[in-house]
UniProtKB/TrEMBL annotation:
Stated name of the protein: UDP-glucose 6-dehydrogenase
Entry's EC annotation: 1.1.1.22
Family statement: Belongs to the UDP-glucose/GDP-mannose dehydrogenase family.
Enzyme class: oxidoreductase
Biological pathway: Nucleotide-sugar biosynthesis; UDP-alpha-D-glucuronate biosynthesis; UDP-alpha-D-glucuronate from UDP-alpha-D-glucose: step 1/1
Catalytic residues in the record: C262
Amino acid sequence: MKISVIGCGYLGAVHAACMADLGHEVVGVDVDAAKVALLSAGTPPFFEPGLPELLRSAIASGRLSFTTDISAVREATVHFIAVGTPQLAQTAALDLRYVDAAVEGLLPHLRDGDLVVGKSTVPVGTAARLAELVRSAGSGATLAWNPEFLREGFAVKDTLAPDRLVYGLAPGDSVGERLLDSVYASALALGTPKVVADFATAELVKVAANAFLAPKISFINAMAEVAEATGADVTQLADAIGYDARIGRKFLNAGLGFGGGCLPKDIRGFMARAEELGVDQALSFLREVDSINLRRRGRMVDLVTEVVGGDVAGKRIAVLGLAFKPDSDDVRDSPAIDVAVRLAALGADVVATDPEALETSRRRFPDLNYVASVDDAVRGADAVALLTEWKTYRALDPTLVGSAVATRAIVDGRNCLDPVQWRAAGGCTEPSAPLNVLAGANTQMR
Ligand SMILES: NC(=O)c1ccc[n+]([C@@H]2O[C@H](COP(=O)([O-])OP(=O)(O)OC[C@H]3O[C@@H](n4cnc5c(N)ncnc54)[C@H](O)[C@@H]3O)[C@@H](O)[C@H]2O)c1
Ligand SMILES: O=c1ccn([C@@H]2O[C@H](COP(=O)(O)OP(=O)(O)O[C@H]3O[C@H](CO)[C@@H](O)[C@H](O)[C@H]3O)[C@@H](O)[C@H]2O)c(=O)[nH]1
């Protein structure tokens, strides 16, 4: 199948590379010439495990290319729309200008039998509007909506072997269904469930999934607030309720809460759309989900402040982790960055590091003090704030960290350290000032 992918960011670049890996001929189109140059050279413009290898082998095979020239889509039959749908500052609704521009840009190049396939996350009602736009242009092309559920850090695996495929199709569009079946033949052969739905259902499946996951995280963070007030252990609580198959342990990690380019903006965009539809009451719970989530960031700042004696001004705070989650360099709405920036605004001397997100952080927040290594970050620190649970941070040696800091205090905002081990190490090396893993032992920030 000949495929074009319009928009080559975190979603589109992975989708393009994976489709080529599956044997399709793919052209990726993006308006960002620098991104296209990097991708064409086989270098992902962002960090995603497994993507560099896939990109290079697909380009070498001749099945994958990138361009800024939209007319290159003429060779293709299936055209994926993977451009951004960021949150509008004023209303929290999703900004559809890039999706609209992408579809309008495609129109002159579409031919009879072509299929435009929306992958971007959009408010319900968008696909029907765009389908009409495509139909009225008169090329004979049609439109489908095929939402994407990949997670950053697992994007390649999630694309090659998704949990499910959702096709939003116009009534009776069997041609569209057959084309998508050809695109996804290998996933279907693996037994991936396929849901064929109307446009509205397909669009809603996407935001409903995120509107289910976000409350799960806020639920456990709400329990963490109660646990903190009672001395209970929220991780044990999560383990115990998670054994119930109806609940499940996944997405019950309490801590700094959710961020990224998806969950926060998607639940806010969903609420904004519900308001337009006059059903805002149905989603009012998401407002509480959002505020529980944002409270975690404030609590983290408070804990660091407590640890250094009530005022962070002039204190050296080592920040470990800036990305919104491990295995990503994405700092869009990153809780870690938010905490680092708030601490700096309170006058702290923040020294921040991250294995992959230094460049993305520096681009957005040039005024923070960034260092390349944990050693440089923790040296002489009055407190350490662990904000993203990278594997390398989980494996840190408490004795080494303890011997580098000025004060043995670490606040584990992601509950990823073993408090017993950290306390023991602190006690061994300097009994009078043990490492204080607030989060781990005392259920705070769990
Ligand atoms: N990032 C994820 O994990 C993920 C997962 C599922 C769904 N989504 C959804 O996918 C969409 C894209 O997200 P993303 O994270 O990849 O965003 P992104 O900002 O990383 O990428 C968007 C890309 O689109 C390009 N672009 C904008 N207008 C264009 C145009 N007219 N023609 C060609 N290219 C254009 C931009 O230059 C950018 O490279 C969003 O709707 C998002 O909600 C993202
Ligand atoms: O138990 C948990 C699980 C996650 N998080 C946080 O939640 C955020 C989102 O994590 P995750 O969902 O793994 O990452 P994303 O890559 O943003 O993926 C989400 O958003 C995508 C875009 O819509 C969807 O495609 C995915 O299915 C959906 O999981 C991150 O900040 C995590 O740190 C927690 O705090 N506790």
